[in-house]
Amino acid sequence: MAVYGELHALGYAHSVETWQARARVGGLYGVALGGLFAGESMFSSAPDASKVALVHLVERLRAGGFTLLDAQFMTPHLQRFGAYLLPRPEYLPTPRRLRWNSPRASFRPVLRGQNRRPGGDWRATRLCC
Fold first, then answer.
1. Rounded CA gap, 13 and 19, in Å?
2. Which has more confidence, 27 or 77?
3. What is the rounded distance in angstroms from the CA atom of residue 4 to the CA atom of residue 10?
4. How far is the C-alpha of 123 from the C-alpha of 23, rounded, in Å?
5. Is pLDDT larger for residue 25 or for residue 88?
6. Cα–Cα nearest to 95, from 29, 31, 36, 7
7. What is the distance, to the nearest Å, from the Cα of residue 109 to the centroid of all Cα atoms in its chain?
8. With contact defined as beta carbons under 8 Å apart, do 38 and 7 qualify?
C-alpha cells in the first residue's frame, strides 16, 4: 500500500468510496494514466456498495474523456455499462497509446448527497482523491 500512497501523492492513484452514516461501506481504487483507468480492487461491507462506487467512477471517467477502464474481470454489472472483452493482442498496445492522452476527469472529493437505490440502504458516495 505504500506504493499506492506514493502514486496518490503524484496524482495517479485514486479511490471512489461509498459511505453510509459516516462509515465507509464500499468502494474501489485504481490508477489513472493518460486515458486509461486501471481498476485494482473493489470492496464492500454493505450490499451493492462497491457497485455504487463503480457507477460513479464510470460517470466521472466518461465525463472526463477517458478511453479505457481496465476492470480485469468481466461481470454482468460491467456489461450493463457496455463493457466487453478485449483480445490480448488488441489490448497490449492500448495502455502505451493512451498514456499521452490528457483526460480531464476530476477526482477531487465530492459528496453526492442522499442517493438511494430501491432496496438499498447506502446514503452517499464520495469520490476521493
1. 19
2. 27
3. 10
4. 10
5. 25
6. 36
7. 13
8. no
Locate 56 and state its grid cell.
460513479
Determine how β-strand 23-33 pairs with β-strand 36-44. antiparallel
CA–CA distance, 73 with 78 (Å, rounded to integer)? 9
Quote the cell numbers at residue 116.
438511494
| 46 pLDDT tier (thresholds 50, 70, 90) | very high
Q: What does the alpha-carbon distance between residue 27 and residue 36 come to, in Å, rounded to a whole number?
A: 19
CB 54 within 8 A of CB 127: no
pLDDT score recorded for residue 117: 44
Q: Please give the Cα distance from 128 to 40 (Å, whole number).
A: 15
Going by C-alpha positions, the residue among 44, 38, 32 that lies closest to residue 72 is: 38
CA 122 to chain centre: 18
Q: For the segment 2-18, what is each residue's pLDDT rounded down to a tens digit?
A: 888 898 888 889 989 99
Of 27 and 98, the one with more pLDDT:
27
Q: 21: buried, middle or exposed (CB in 10 Å: 19+, 13-18, 0-12)? A: exposed
